Amino acid sequence: MLDEVDKALLEALQEDARLSYNELARRVHVSPPTVAQRVRRLENMGAITGYRAVVDPTVVGRPVVALVRMKCYGPRCITVHPELLDDLPEVVEVVRLTGDICSVVKVVTTSIVELERLLVRLATHGETSSAMVLSTPIPWRPVLPG
Questions:
Q1: What residues of the chain score a pLDDT lower than 50?
Q2: Please, what are the domains in the chain?
């Protein structure tokens, strides 16, 4: 179970994963060795699954962002066999769903032409329906522990 210190650490690390143990200790009012122990425990229990930079696709040359709804079944299903998409770096996220579609695939491409090529490739795995992202009024935000 998570206590208030764990929750405060998770919130602080989601806000800025580059915080030092000293700074985290100052923010949550415990010692740096306690912070180090708690962070390791949170990693080992799977509460913290990784650390990464959040990159704006437009700034790095991938201004076309789209969400692709997929209906696929059987041996070509990307939710059952996600390795089928390993050679597609344009695919940045796949979410498995319930209901009439099996997944939503988030893709980032350099152009509409590249998006079209990618959609043709994804169609080999099932029925697709895509929507381009115009803006993100609510960007990613931290998960608050319950």
A1: none
A2: 4-45 (1.10.10.10), 57-132 (3.30.70.920)
